[in-house]
Structure formats: C-alpha cells, structure tokens
Specification:
With 164 residues, the chain is an alpha+beta fold. It has a single domain, classed as Methylamine Dehydrogenase, Chain H (7 Propeller), CATH 2.130.10.30. It has 2 helices and 8 strands; from the N terminus they run ααββββββββ. A 3-stranded antiparallel beta sheet has the order 1-2-3, with no helix packed on it. A hairpin with a 4-residue loop joins strand 2 and strand 3. The radius of gyration is 18 Å and the shape is globular.
C-alpha cells in the first residue's frame, strides 16, 4: 500500500497540525528576523554590500542613495525601491508620487519589508505592520487588531499578512 504525504493535509482532523506547522514556521521566521536585527554577527554577510539596479530608471528607482550601507534586504516596487538596514530602519527612493518613497518618521525595529505598486509594508519586531504610500484600493487599511504577523507581502493594489 502506497502512502501519499501531503505537506498541508486537507482532512479536517489535520487542521491542528496545520496550525502547529504555521506557528512553528512563523516562530522560525521571527527568530531569524530578530537575530538579523539584534545581532550584527548575523547581518555581517551583507555589510559592505551595494545596491545594483538595471532596467528602466525613468523615476529614479535605480538611484540608491550613495551613502546606503549595512543593507539587510531590498525590495523593488513599481517605480520605487526600498532597503531594510541592519539597524531595523528603512530607506526609500525613486517615484514618490503617492509618498511611497518617503518612509514614515520614527519607523524603527523593522524585520521585513515589502514594496507594492505604489505602497509599502514594514513588519516590526513586535508583529505589527506599518503601511504607507498610495491607498486607492484600501491597501493601507490594516485590519484593526491585526497582530502576531510573521510575514507580509505588498501586491499591486492589495496587501497580505501571514499571522499565527
């Protein structure tokens, strides 16, 4: 008899297993993110790296600030770009028609970023989300009480969060 393994079993009785798996995956992601922000030793591989871009630069999305250092993550939006630094701060550049390249004042303790069409998301170490930029379809309207977020993704005119 052959047994098939399903990564996410569809049977109703396996919903507890799915919840446990999502919880463990989220905890692992948060641990890695915390280590990257809190410990320079984990962020060292990207220290000294430079952003290199190619393609259309009509709106300046390729013009990373010359003094940008200690980069942990980069994101490309429609015509803007973001960088997450090892100190948990975010830098933006390029098209700013909807405020998407202007990082909100005081945004710190960020562990992940995502750039969409004309909006951005930042995941903070406490599991909350900060959103900024264009809001034509409600993509900045974070649901009230949303917490324990482990991952984020900014789409064209929508936003997603993975929570436990």
């Amino acid at each position: 008899m052959m047994r098939t393994f399903h990564f996410f079993p569809l049977q109703r009785q396996d919903s507890q297993r799915r919840r446990i798996f999502c919880l463990l995956a989220g905890l692992a992601l948060m641990l890695v993110s915390l280590l990257n922000v809190a410990s320079p030793a984990y962020a060292d591989p990207l220290t000294g790296c430079a952003v290199v871009g190619w393609g259309s630069n009509f709106y300046g999305a390729l013009n990373a600030p010359a003094d940008l250092t200690d980069i942990l993550e980069i994101e490309a939006g429609y015509a803007h770009s973001l960088a997450l630094k090892t100190d948990g701060t975010v830098v933006g550049w390029g098209d700013n028609g909807y405020g998407q390249a202007t990082v909100p004042a005081g945004l710190v303790n960020v562990v992940a970023i995502s750039a969409g069409n004309s909006h951005n998301l930042a995941l903070k170490v406490d599991g909350t989300i900060v959103a900024w930029g264009g809001n034509s379809k409600g993509q900045l309207n974070i649901p009230a009480g949303l917490s324990n977020v482990k991952a984020i993704s900014a789409g064209y005119n929508h936003s997603l969060a993975l929570k436990t």
